[in-house]
C-alpha cells in the first residue's frame, strides 16, 4: 500500500474505478500474492501495473530487464507490450517464492519470452553485454545507485529506465538520514538529476517512480 492510499482510500478507489480494468490473470496473481506471501505490499499493484503496461505498449520494446520479480505482477505488465519477438529478463534472489511467478508466467502465454533467473542483479549486470530498451528496477534499495552505474552502459538512445520507491515514504526529505536505504535512494536521485545523458521526472505515483529516458 502506498503513502497516498493510506491517506486517502476514497481517492484511491476513484482512481481505480476510472481506469481500464485489471486483466483476470493479474487479479488472480494479486489475490494469491496476498494469500501466500508474508510481504504482499511489495507487489507493484494496479496503478503502477497500468503505467508499466501502457509504457511497454507504447514502446513495444525488444529487450526488457526487470530487477526484482517477486510474484511476477510487473513482469506480466511489461511483457504485455513487448514486440512480437521481444524478450524480458527478470531477476530475483528469492528461491522460496519462485514457484509463484513460474506458475503465472506459464499461464500467461508469454512464457517462451520470459527469461526468469534466480540471480543477484549485480552479478547479472557485471556479466551481461546486452542492451535494454526498457528497464524496471524494484529490488534492494541499498544497491540502487550501483544499479544505475551498471545499467547506464547497457542503455542506448531512447532507452527508458524506471526506478521504483524513489520517494521512500517521504524519507528522501530527511537532511542527514541514518538509514542506509534512504541515503542510497537520495544518492541515486542526485546522480540521475546531474546526469546529462538522461532526461527524467520523478512521478509521485505510489512511493515515487524515477522515470528516465536516455537522450
Ligand atoms: C518490491 S519486490 C518486487 C516487486 C515486483 N516488481 C512486483 O511488481 O510485484 C522486490 C524483490 O526484489 C528481490 N531482490 C532483492 N535483492 C535482489 C537482488 N540483489 N537481485 C535481484 N532481486 C533482488 C526480492 O527478493 C523481492 O522479491
Automatic annotation (TrEMBL):
Organism of provenance: Chryseobacterium taeanense
Keyword Cytoplasm belongs to the record: no
Domain of life: Bacteria
Lineage, opening ranks: Bacteria, Pseudomonadati, Bacteroidota, Flavobacteriia, Flavobacteriales
Name used for this protein in its record: Predicted O-methyltransferase YrrM
GO biological process terms on file: methylation
Any Pfam family the entry gives: Methyltransf_3
Keywords: Methyltransferase, S-adenosyl-L-methionine, Transferase
InterPro entries: Cation-dep_OMT, SAM-dependent_MTases_sf, SAM_O-MeTrfase
Keyword S-adenosyl-L-methionine listed: yes
CDD domains with a match to the protein in the record: AdoMet_MTases
Amino acid at each position: 500500500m502506498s503513502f497516498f492510499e493510506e491517506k486517502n482510500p476514497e481517492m484511491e478507489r476513484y482512481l481505480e474505478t476510472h481506469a481500464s480494468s485489471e486483466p483476470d490473470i493479474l487479479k488472480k496473481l494479486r489475490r494469491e500474492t496476498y494469500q501466500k506471501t508474508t510481504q504482499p505490499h511489495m507487489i507493484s499493484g494496479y496503478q503502477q501495473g497500468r503505467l508499466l503496461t501502457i509504457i511497454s505498449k507504447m514502446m513495444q520494446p525488444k529487450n526488457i530487464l526487470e530487477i526484482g520479480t517477486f510474484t511476477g505482477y510487473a513482469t506480466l505488465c511489461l511483457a504485455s507490450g513487448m514486440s512480437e519477438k521481444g524478450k524480458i529478463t527478470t531477476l530475483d534472489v528469492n528461491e522460496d517464492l519462485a514457484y509463484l511467478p513460474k506458475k503465472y508466467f506459464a499461464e500467461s502465454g508469454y512464457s517462451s519470452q520470459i527469461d526468469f533467473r534466480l540471480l543477484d542483479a549485480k552479478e547479472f549486470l557485471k556479466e551481461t553485454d546486452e542492451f535494454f530498451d526498457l528497464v524496471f528496477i524494484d529490488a534492494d534499495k541499498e544497491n540502487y545507485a550501483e544499479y544505475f552505474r551498471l545499467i547506464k552502459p547497457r542503455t542506448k538512445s531512447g532507452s527508458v529506465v524506471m526506478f521504483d520507491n524513489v520517494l521512500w515514504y517521504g524519507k528522501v526529505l530527511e537532511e542527514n538520514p541514518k538509514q542506509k536505504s534512504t541515503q542510497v535512494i537520495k544518492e541515486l536521485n542526485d546522480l540521475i538529476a546531474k546526469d546529462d545523458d538522461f532526461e527524467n521526472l520523478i512521478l509521485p505515483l505510489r512511493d515515487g517512480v524515477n522515470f528516465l529516458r536516455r537522450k
